[in-house]
């Protein structure tokens, strides 16, 4: 086996564990790498509690003064102009050859992008969560690699379909996700004549709950289930809930912010053996293969027809979709994540060697 190039990762997150980005791109893969691949790590989460301040101090000093050649320093989505940014700015200037800027959302379209552009220009490499982000950041740094957001495999896999066909969705019910559901999915569900259940994980506003229930009034064949008390840091519970879906829905709007998403919903469904219905936009169409692990739909009619097809298909064919979804996880699991960062580290090492040779030739 080839010797691992990374033995230590310093990961400076932009927010706490309530952020899916911090959980799925940092905590879970770092835990996996530490437990299974002997890769040490320190996850630094900003905050003013004594514990977080101490963790930052120890991680920062170690990364600044004592990093090994086999270390990697990752700055994740930091964009604010506070002390945290300025200290990381110094770290990047001093340890540039070891630094990676990690970005998996189009924050440059929603916030002042100056600090994002600083890290993009000055870090040695960029890990981009989608092809759209990759394309955007290449104008600041040619060293950009698409590192897809991984899903943790807890081996929680759907075993059988429900007696009542269950359509599931998980996520934040913000403008983009909400609008795409109302545009494509909710009308399709209204078209169904058979008994079914719509389970929505992530609806937090009372007004949204009332609005959704009112939307489906008069359709007694459709049961609406909206759990309110969800611990987003309990990954086992989340995956158990997802495995209870018969099909998972992942829709996006054709908007620059939305098409820069990393397709995490579709990945979560397939990770638990649940087939996917999505619309034909990146990153969904990079992970969902039409007719293999789900269906790609462009219209309300497409969603209606494919929901009917999943409800009517025999168990053998359904199990094939489920298995194919699980087989697809090799494209976005934690092994793929560490492999991508290993590739980044290899390219960084080559650049360092080339720079050293150039300096030698000049002297």
Q: Could you characterize the architecture of this molecule?
A:
There is one protein chain. The protein has 2 domains: 8-150 and 335-362, Rossmann fold, CATH 3.40.50; 165-331, Rossmann fold (3-Layer(aba) Sandwich), CATH 3.40.50.2000. The protein contains 14 helices and 12 strands. The radius of gyration is 22 Å and the shape is elongated. By secondary structure, the chain is of the alpha/beta class. The model has no long low-confidence stretch (mean pLDDT 95). The two termini are 38 Å apart. It has a 6-stranded parallel sheet, sandwiched between helices. Strands 9-8-7-10-11-12 form a 6-stranded parallel sheet. Helix 3 (83-94) packs parallel to helix 5.
Total count of helical runs of at least 4 residues: 14
Largest sheet, if any? 6 strands, parallel
Helix coverage percent: 40-55%
CATH domain class name of the largest domain: Alpha Beta
Strand order in the sheet with the most strands: 2-1-3-4-5-6
The amount of beta strand, in percent, is 15-25%
CATH topology of the largest domain: Rossmann fold
Give the CA-CA distance, first to last residue. Answer: 38 Å
Shape, principal axes of CA atoms: elongated
H/E order of the elements?
Answer: EHEHEHEHHEHEEHEHEHEHEHEHHH
Map the helices and strands.
Blueprint (H helix, E strand, L loop, with lengths): L7 E5 L7 H17 L3 E5 L5 H16 L5 E6 L6 H12 L4 E5 L3 H4 L3 H9 L2 E4 L2 H7 L6 E3 L18 E6 L4 H16 L5 E6 L4 H10 L6 E4 L9 H8 L4 E4 L13 H8 L4 E4 L4 H4 L6 E4 L2 H13 L2 H14 L5 H29 L1
Parallel strand pairs: 1-2, 1-3, 3-4, 4-5, 5-6, 7-8, 7-10, 8-9, 10-11, 11-12
Helix pairs in contact: 1-14, 3-5, 7-12
